Each structure stands twice: as C-alpha cells, then as structure tokens.
Amino acid sequence: MRNRTAAILICFFGGYFGVHKFYLGNPVLGILYLVFCWTFIPGLISFFEFLGLCFMSDREFDARFNYAEDPNLLAQSSRYPIGSARSRQEATSTLYDLKKLYEDGIITAEEYEVKRRKMLDDI
C-alpha cells in the first residue's frame, strides 16, 4: 500500500522529474514529466500536486491511490460513493424491480418513493 507521507515527500523532492507519478502508479505521466522536465512545467505542476497531497485526507488518498490493493476502500470513500460496477448494476437492478412493482400496482406511489429515496440515499 502506498503511504501518503511518502508520496508527499517524493512529490516535494522528486516531483520535478515525475518520481511521485511512478510511486502513485501512473508511469505514463511519470515519463511525460521526465521528457518535459527541461521546460519547468512539470516543476510547477508538481508543486500544486504537492499542495493537493498535503491537504488531502488519508481516506481520500487511500480511495484514489490504494484502491487496487483493497477495493473496499473505494466504497468507503465519500468522494466515490459507489464502490464498483457490480454495485452499480445491483442498484440499477433493484430500482428497476421497484419500478416494476409500482407499475404492477403491488406497491403504492408513496411506498415506491420512500423505498426509491432510501435506496438512492444508501448508494
């Protein structure tokens, strides 16, 4: 698992050359930083990325950069409320079934709206 403190230090000291991008799992951008390091643009961008990492919460950092090691982190993040494509499919399927029950007259409009709202709030 990647460490936020290590990422901050790597970004501060090696961000100009894109070392932090390799550490955070984005080697394509790391190579672009290396190719364009002579233009000072990667240094400027890495400074703002350094600030972003400093002010990012541990929970958000884990959701963005450690989700491959632990997919449950993505579901726990407030920024990424739906954890995976499977849960999206399950939610869509449940909402479809709920709509079908309403259309068939099995549940009332009020029951449908309450259950739909609860379902959407849980996502």
Descriptive report:
The two termini are 26 Å apart. Residues 77-83 have low confidence and may be disordered. This protein has helices at 4-14, 19-23, 27-35, 41-55, 58-65, 72-76, 85-103, 109-122. The chain folds into 2 domains: 4-76, no CATH class; 85-122. It contains 8 helices and no strands. The chain is 70% helix and 0% strand. With 123 residues, it is mostly helical.
Distance between the termini: 26 Å
What is the percentage of strand-forming residues? Answer: under 5%
What Rg, in angstroms, do the CA atoms define? 21 Å
Decide which structural class fits the backbone. mainly alpha
Largest sheet geometry: none
Provide a count of the helices: 8
- Backbone shape: elongated
Total individual domains: 2
Mean pLDDT: 82
Which secondary structure elements does this structure contain, and how are they paired or packed?
Blueprint: H1 4-14, H2 19-23, H3 27-35, H4 41-55, H5 58-65, H6 72-76, H7 85-103, H8 109-122
